[in-house]
Predict the 3D structure of the following.
Amino acid sequence: MPNPTAAMLVIGDEILSGRTRDSNMHHLAQAFTRHGIDLKEVRVVSDDRAAIVGAVQALAEAYDHVVTSGGIGPTHDDITAPCVAEAFGVAISVRDDARAILQAHYDRSGTELNEARLRMARIPDGAALIDNPVSAAPGFSLRNVHVMAGVPSVFEAMVASLLPTLTGGAPILSQTLRLMRGEGEVALPLGALAEEFSDLQFGSYPFQKDGVYGTNLVVRGTDAGRLDAAMTRLHALFPG
Amino acid sequence: MPNPTAAMLVIGDEILSGRTRDSNMHHLAQAFTRHGIDLKEVRVVSDDRAAIVGAVQALAEAYDHVVTSGGIGPTHDDITAPCVAEAFGVAISVRDDARAILQAHYDRSGTELNEARLRMARIPDGAALIDNPVSAAPGFSLRNVHVMAGVPSVFEAMVASLLPTLTGGAPILSQTLRLMRGEGEVALPLGALAEEFSDLQFGSYPFQKDGVYGTNLVVRGTDAGRLDAAMTRLHALFPG
């Protein structure tokens, strides 16, 4: 059975303007690879209602899972939760369980749960909460869309909360052969081997080090024995 | 007149598997912001024909410019150029001007321009070449799609070659007020100010430092005077 598929939707003007360098995509890609879920697509859109709603609908239709990152805080530019509700045509309102989590969190620090903070308790009808052990305000899963914070430490904690609830497939294994030859030297025999081992993925990644061209050949797949067989052939093709 | 809009398409299994951390998105976002082009969307897709063709068509239709990154090397997994040709229904073949650039480059190092390397001279009909001062193999622009390498040093050099050929708008300016208060404290007055200055974008980005919550308030726009006026009001709202 093929692994489940997933997409990620990163929401935030700060990424598209170049103010902030996204790191959540890389974290999720690695976590999903270990868990046996194939991340097939990532989209980054701005804090724009139509853009978010359209992307949620397209990705939720095309993939088994969608993870969103960003736009669930207390300020006017945090519009992800109502956009996800709109994408599925469900209502959204402050929910008692989410409010109780926030109330307990702010009580501990003697901070008021004011109107702005209460926005973070708005949960679409039918959603399940995702635990946030860092800053309390929960994420949520609505059908196959999992809505998480954009701050990396919070995003990563929410991924850790979510992953055990998702059925994974076989972890995707990889092995790398590092060659001090240019890609153009290895391309033809590599292509032939990739056709022969069509159940595996073969990638070729050039690099330059101290003025010399090199290539990392990466073989990926779920069957350790097949990976070993492919690596044996690669070592024979490119000795030294 | 509003600034031109743009999207980016990152092509590569190595990003989606978590093997490689993309840096081209951040570079392009900053370069476009300085040049007065609004980057509105980024997509990352795998080395898959249907995914690449579909994304190129959707983005080329929706935005003034599309920049692609990755998949134009000599190996079997480098399929971006034929996919872009297919997206626009034009033919692709080895072109004399691109072949001459590669021939001169490999002649200098005494390297053979073999069949694999010659793949990098395949250019869709009607495309204009983009100069690659790092490793010679050119990118190309076909209509509003600009096709570039994925290796960061080469991508960045190609962006520098491309940018002067694109009409930019007003550079997008930004100013930041760093506050040692949580987002929940500033959300309501910030939202009111954002409504009053609806020609500017107001972003709010929480951070945590030494256990204390803080917020960066960022105002962005193209009119320096309006930015100054908004910052004066922000300083009055949140003194100290």
Summary: The mean pLDDT of chain B is 95. The longest strand of chain B covers residues 212-221. Chain B touches chain A through 65 residues (CB under 8 Å).
